[in-house]
Design brief:
3-stranded antiparallel β-sheet; 5-stranded antiparallel β-sheet; 195 residues; globular; 6 helices
Length: 195
C-alpha cells in the first residue's frame, strides 16, 4: 500500500500549500466514470488521481497546518499530494516539445518531471493577475489563482512518479527560493498560444 504522508509533510515543510487528491489504491467510483464516459480507461485513471479529495476552497488562502495534513493522510494514506497554486504560478509543459520551448524561453530553476513533460514553478507576483488557463491544443497550461497541481512524489495514472528536476547547484530550501514570475514570461506564453 502506498503511503504519501511523509511526502505531504516534506512539501508542507518547504512552504507549499498542500491538499489531498484522490489515491492510487482506490477504485474509481461509478459517478466519476459516468461523468467521463467518453474517456479511455487510462485517461479516467489519470484524471481521477488529479481530482481533489474534497472541496478545498477554505484552504486557498490559508494553508492547512501539519496536524490537519497528518489527519488527512492518516485517513487517506494513498492520496496524491495536490499543491494549491494561489501563491504560485506553475507552467505545465505537457510534452517534450513544449518542455524544450519552456526551458529555452521561460526558464525556472525549480521544475518537476511529469509523465510527458515538466512543471515550471514560479512564485506569485502580486502585481500580476494570473488565473488558471488550460490550453490543450498548445500543450502548455498555466496554474495560477484557484489552481491545483499534482505534487512531487505523487503517482500519475500510468504509474510514473512525479520527481524534482532542480537546476544543478541551485539551493532550494523553501518556496521563497522559487523565482518570481514576471510579465515577460507570461507575454512569451501568450505569444506561443497565438503561434
Amino acid at each position: 500500500m502506498i503511503n504519501n504522508l511523509q511526502n505531504a509533510i516534506d512539501l508542507h515543510m518547504l512552504g507549499f500549500n498542500i491538499f489531498p487528491l484522490r489515491g492510487v489504491d482506490e477504485n474509481i467510483p461509478k459517478w466519476f466514470l459516468e461523468k467521463h464516459k467518453n474517456e479511455s480507461k487510462i485517461k479516467n485513471k489519470i484524471n481521477w488521481l488529479k481530482t481533489p479529495r474534497f472541496a478545498y476552497t477554505q484552504y486557498r488562502d490559508q494553508k492547512a497546518c501539519k496536524k490537519q495534513i497528518i489527519k488527512w493522510w492518516t485517513q487517506y494514506p494513498s492520496s496524491n499530494v495536490g499543491i494549491i497554486t494561489n501563491k504560485l504560478v506553475v507552467i505545465d509543459a505537457d510534452n517534450q516539445k513544449t518542455d524544450q520551448w519552456c526551458y529555452r524561453n521561460i526558464f525556472s530553476s525549480i521544475r518537476v518531471k511529469t509523465k510527458r513533460g515538466k512543471h515550471y514553478y514560479f512564485r506569485y507576483n502580486p502585481s500580476l493577475k494570473i488565473s488558471t488557463i488550460n490550453n490543450g491544443s498548445k500543450k502548455i497550461d498555466i496554474r495560477g489563482y484557484n489552481g491545483i497541481i499534482t505534487g512531487v512524489g505523487s503517482t500519475h495514472g500510468s504509474g510514473f512518479k512525479y520527481k524534482w528536476d532542480i537546476e544543478h547547484g541551485f539551493q532550494f530550501k523553501s518556496v521563497h527560493d522559487i523565482p518570481m514570475i514576471k510579465s515577460n514570461i507570461l507575454d512569451k506564453i501568450y505569444k506561443y498560444y497565438k503561434s
